[in-house]
Amino acid sequence: MGSQVVPQARRHRWRMLCILATCLLVAAAHAGIPLSGLSREVRAGDTPASVLEDYRHGGLVGFDPRRLQRFSQQGLGTWVVLQPQPPLVSEERVLSIYPPPLTPVTMYTAHAAPLTLSLDDFTAIAHGNGRLAYRLTEDTPASEPILLKFEPASARDFPVSFQLQTWNEYLERDAQWLVFASACFAVMLAMALMALCLAIMLRDSTYGWYAGYILCYALIQGIHTGYLYHPLGLTWLAGNAPLLGSSAVALSLAFAAMFMARFCELPRYAPLLHTPTLVLAVGMPLVVLLRSCQIPLLQQTAQVLIDPLLMIGTLLLLLAAIVAAVRGARPAWFFLVGWTPLLALTALSSSQVNGMLADVMWLSDAALAAGAFEAIVLSLGLADRALIMRHDHELVQELADNDALTNVLNRRAWTEAVCKVMASGAEQPVALLFLDLDHFKLLNDRQGHAAGDRALIAVADALRHELRPHDLLGRYGGEEFVAMLYGIEQGQAMQVATRLCRRVHRLDIPVTTDGLVLSASIGIAMRAANDSVESLVERADHAMYRAKLAGRNRARLDEKLDPSAPTVWPQVMEGDQGG
């Protein structure tokens, strides 16, 4: 009984915490001085006084300023009257419009000259970050209605909300937004710059397309939130927001298409969708060119095409990523994780423009956070892709360098490695061992090539375990092996070679049924000042033949190292069956 009460209490506490968090979010969204709002379209001959008179006689249509409101873009514009509600505050206040509209908005008060603000307004008047902000001095009566005039929009504009706060509340909120937005943009720009550096260093265009996409998205958000204007103060963008914004949207989709085609490996995992994706990537810049030209007909055509193409292109990229992910493209999952939240927010924002979700105030800020999140996820995806490519490259390199049968270095790779050691100019002694298996041809003839292959594998494994990890062991050809021993003297080299002979003999690989087993003859050469790899191998090879002539299953030094050596060397171990 008691065990059931504890989980119920926990669930109750979690439920209360969720309710409390929701209430705090709602309170934060609706914080400030209460407002009521009314609006009507601008008519010819209107004056601020006549509009306020209409307001007092009930000639305007009411709306909730705390909810997102989209005003008419036709005609001469829209009048908005905001009436402060109790409890009234007589100190300095700030009226903010969020998100900031693309069109100019003028505020009329009885105690100050009309004040017009817009995103690209760079006057000395205090301007909000991420919103339009109008200061109301203490001289303005707390109950006085606030009159605003929205100019007609030449392009589709987002719905806005209104908030009246005290000066201190506004400064706190403005600073919070500035820190949040700066962090999001910093993440996006850092990821894009890192990708550009990698694109140059690795000569991989995938990183370049990714950087272009992230930069375009940052540009879109910078225009939409006004960050490029305030606080960055990029005055040369004044008057170009609609054109620059639509161009950035089109180019971002083009860059996303090129990036996704390479990142998700569409030719391999979704070949049928690869060509439409490339067509989309080429078509969107053409729309931008049409939108930027000076021919009105072409501009209108591009404006009509851009929204359908964006919708079709977005669905195409989503479908291609899903297909590639389902078919095994690991990077496609990174693309979906990073891109899907952004796609959902874009759909919600589109719904807001059409008059839905008026209470959802956080979409604009969420789009910023989603951009930073996507930049991080896709950067992790690129890093994961780079690691996979590096692993594949190392695997291919290993397959190219290693002998397929014995898994030691092949002749080419061994020669290249020894050349690097000898070219390093180090003064350490270098010994080269040339090893040939005795009676190997007889083993192949009597037992077949499969038995010979097994013998080569066993010998290579024994040699590898007997030598040091940094010794270079390779298969020179057929039944011949070579080993370069770095940093050992002549006497030590002889000891190692003798040990190798014993190790091969103790494998007890039968050659014939009368007791003959596989053994090895080894020649040893020490590097001289004028030696090349070829000359060193040649001397070790000659020493190996001297070991063969001396009775096999033994090691012998190069003649230059031991000219007084006896004609017949003692055998390495008793019972040598060499012939």
Question: How would you portray this structure in words?
Answer:
The protein has 15 helices and 14 strands. The protein has 579 residues and is α+β, with helices and mostly antiparallel strands. The model is unreliable at 1-7, 16-30 and 566-579 (pLDDT under 50). It holds the Pfam family GGDEF. Keywords: Membrane, Nucleotidyltransferase, Transferase, Transmembrane, Transmembrane helix. One of its GO terms (molecular function) is diguanylate cyclase activity.
Structural class: alpha+beta
Indicate the CATH class of the largest domain: Mainly Alpha
End-to-end separation in angstroms reads: 90 Å
Q: Give the overall silhouette.
A: elongated
Task: Give start-end ranges of low-pLDDT stretches.
Answer: 1-7, 16-30, 566-579
CATH architecture of the largest domain: Up-down Bundle
* H/E element order: HEHEEEEEEEEHHHHHHHHHEHHEEHEHE
Number of helices: 15
Instruction: Count all strands and give the number.
Output: 14
Mean pLDDT: 84
> How much helix is in the residues?
40-55%
Kindly report the CATH topology of the largest domain: Rhopdopsin 7-helix transmembrane proteins
Oligomer: single chain
Strand order of the largest sheet: 2-1-3-8-5-6
Question: How much strand content do the residues show?
Answer: 5-15%
Radius of gyration: 40 Å
- Count of distinct structural domains: 3
User: Biggest sheet, open or closed, and with what strands and sense?
Assistant: 6 strands, antiparallel
